[in-house]
C-alpha cells in the first residue's frame, strides 16, 4: 500500500505469507535456539491467543528484541512475521504492520496521546479484523514508550507521560480484545524503554554482538551470495581459513559492519570494481584493515 494512503503512524501494511518476503529469516545468523523461541512464542499467541486469555496472567502478545545496532533485530522481526505466516497459512493469512514511532511526538500538549490512542483503539483493531492473524513491528520502541521515570524536562514531560500511558492502555486493550495480535518491538536502548512496557512483555530477547565463529559464518554466507553472481569468487567463499582470519580482525564488530566488508573489498581496486570476478583475499584483508 502506498504510504500516501496509509493510516497515520503506519509505515507499511502487508499480507503474508508472500514470496517476496522470504529471505531474512534464513539469512540472519543468531545464537542457536533464538529463532525457535521467537517463532514458538509467536505461533502460540497467534493460534491460541483466545484460549490463553482465559488463564491467569493475561499474555500481552508482546515480544521485545534488544541489543546494539547492527545485530539484526529488525531483520529478524520481519523474518519472524513471514515465517509465522507460512506456518499458519492453513488457518488463514496474516496482516503485517510496521509502525513509525517517530510519527507521534508532538509539540502540542496531548496530541501525541490522542494520536496513539487512535492508533491502538481504532486503526490496529480495524486491521486485525481483516485476517485471522496480525503481527505489528514497532522499531526503535524507545521513541514510542519513553521511560517516564527519566523523561527529560527539556521536552514536555507531561505529554511524554500521557503518550506512554496511551501506549500501555492500548497494549492492554488489544491483549484482551484482539488476542491474535503479536507486537514485536525492537530497541537499541532498553534502559530508555518504560519499565511498565517491558513488564508486559511475554518474551524479552537480548541479541549481542557476534562472536568470531559467527562473524566467519556471516562472511562465508556473504561471499557465497557474491559467488552466485560472479562465479570467479567461489574459491573465496570456500576458503574457511580466510574466513577465520578475517573474523579475527573483525572481533567486536556488529553483523551489519561485517557484511559490508565484501562491498568495501569490491571497491579496493578499479579492476575489481569493473570485474568482481577478480576479487582476491588481499582485497578482503585490506577492506577489514580500512574499516
UniProtKB/TrEMBL annotation:
Question: Keywords assigned by UniProt?
Answer: ATP-binding, Nucleotide-binding
For molecular function, the Gene Ontology terms on record are: ATP binding
**Stored SMART domains:** AAA (SM00382)
- What highest taxon heads this organism's lineage? Bacteria
A family per Pfam: AAA
- The residue ranges of the AAA+ ATPase domain are 59-211
What is the protein's name according to its record? ATP-binding protein
Amino acid at each position: 500500500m502506498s504510504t500516501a494512503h496509509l493510516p497515520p503512524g503506519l509505515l507499511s501494511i502487508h499480507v503474508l505469507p508472500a514470496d517476496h518476503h522470504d529471505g531474512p529469516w534464513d539469512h540472519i545468523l543468531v545464537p542457536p535456539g533464538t529463532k525457535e523461541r521467537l517463532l514458538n512464542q509467536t505461533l502460540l499467541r497467534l493460534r491460541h491467543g483466545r484460549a490463553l486469555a482465559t488463564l491467569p496472567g493475561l499474555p500481552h502478545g508482546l515480544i521485545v528484541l534488544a541489543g546494539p545496532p547492527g545485530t539484526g533485530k529488525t531483520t529478524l522481526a520481519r523474518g519472524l512475521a513471514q515465517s509465522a505466516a507460512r506456518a499458519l497459512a492453513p488457518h488463514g493469512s496474516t496482516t503485517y504492520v510496521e509502525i513509525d514511532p517517530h510519527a507521534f511526538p508532538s509539540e502540542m500538549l496531548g496530541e501525541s496521546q490522542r494520536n496513539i490512542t487512535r492508533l491502538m483503539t481504532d486503526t490496529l483493531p480495524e486491521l486485525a479484523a481483516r485476517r485471522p492473524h496480525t503481527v505489528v513491528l514497532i522499531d526503535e520502541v524507545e521513541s514510542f514508550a519513553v521511560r517516564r521515570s527519566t523523561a527529560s524536562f527539556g521536552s514536555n514531560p507531561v505529554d511524554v507521560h500521557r503518550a506512554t500511558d496511551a501506549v500501555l492502555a492500548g497494549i492492554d486493550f488489544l491483549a484482551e480484545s484482539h488476542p491474535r495480535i503479536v507486537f514485536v518491538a525492537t530497541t537499541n536502548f532498553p534502559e530508555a524503554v518504560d519499565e511498565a512496557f517491558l513488564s508486559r512483555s511475554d518474551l524479552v530477547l537480548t541479541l549481542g554482538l557476534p562472536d568470531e565463529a559467527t562473524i566467519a559464518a556471516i562472511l562465508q554466507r556473504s561471499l557465497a551470495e557474491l559467488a552466485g553472481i560472479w562465479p570467479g569468487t567461489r574459491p573465496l567463499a570456500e576458503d574457511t581459513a580466510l574466513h577465520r582470519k578475517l573474523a579475527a580482525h573483525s572481533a567486536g564488530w556488529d553483523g551489519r559492519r561485517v557484511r559490508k566488508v565484501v562491498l568495501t573489498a569490491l571497491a579496493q581496486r578499479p579492476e575489481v570494481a569493473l570485474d568482481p570476478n577478480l576479487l582476491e583475499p588481499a582485497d578482503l584483508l585490506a577492506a577489514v584493515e580500512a574499516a
